[in-house]
Amino acid sequence: MLHRTLLLSAFALAAGLYMLPLAADEAKPMSPPRTAAPAGVELYFISPKDGETVSSEVTVRFGLRGMGVSPAGNMAKGTGHHHLLIDVEDLPALDKPIPADEHHVHFGGGQTETTIKLAPGKHTLQLDLADALHMQFDPPIVSEKITVTVK
């Protein structure tokens, strides 16, 4: 009887350990699917230009060819909304929505320009187009990174 109880306990423990990885996978939050990027899309800065010297308040104008701009949450095919990356070394994680902070500025209203304040010195700017759920397209639709110098 003791042998049977120990054997059943061992099987129960083994089954629990076997199921643990499956339970851990189920506990992981699922990422929203990424939207396929249309071919030939170009995201760019109208202004400022790379290497330009600017005042601390700089107007940034976004350019986009091959897609339309729409507010965040709008699921219209072939559209997205802008994010401005300020002094960001690497693109945000591809499996999560683009963060919203002082280095990742969202334009969820469908805006195509903004005025930002930058401290004196050199700064990098890059545009990142996102889908309705703030996810980067697959592959990401980004501009070239530009550098501006603030007087």
Broad CATH class: Mainly Beta
Query: What is the first-to-last residue Cα distance?
Result: 85 Å
The biggest beta sheet reads: 7 strands, mixed
What are the segments in which pLDDT stays under 50 over at least 5 consecutive residues?
A: 2-24
Number of strands: 10
Helix content: 10-25%
Order of helices and strands: HEEEEEEEEEE
| Secondary-structure class | alpha+beta
Architecture in CATH?
Sandwich
Total individual domains: 1
Q: What does the average pLDDT come to?
A: 87
* CATH homologous superfamily title: Immunoglobulins
The CATH topology, please? Immunoglobulin-like
- Separate helix tally: 1
Shape, please?
Answer: globular
Rg over alpha carbons: 23 Å
Could you tell me the strand content as a percent range? 35-45%
Report on this structure.
The protein is an alpha+beta fold and 151 residues long. It has one domain (42-150): Sandwich (Immunoglobulin-like). Helices cover 17% and strands 38% of the residues. It has one helix and ten strands; from the N terminus they run αββββββββββ. The protein has one helix spanning 2-27, and strands at residues 42-47, 53-54, 57-65, 68-69, 79-86, 104-107, 113-117, 121-130, 136-142, 146-150. The strands form two sheets. Strands 2, 4, 5, 6, 8, 9 and 10 form a seven-stranded mixed β-sheet that branches. A three-stranded antiparallel β-sheet has the order 1-3-7, with no helix packed on it. Strand 8 (121-130) and strand 9 (136-142) form a beta hairpin. The longest helix is centred in the N-terminal third of the chain and has 26 residues, at 2-27. The chain is globular and about 45 Å long. The termini are far apart. Mean pLDDT is 87; it is low at 2-24.
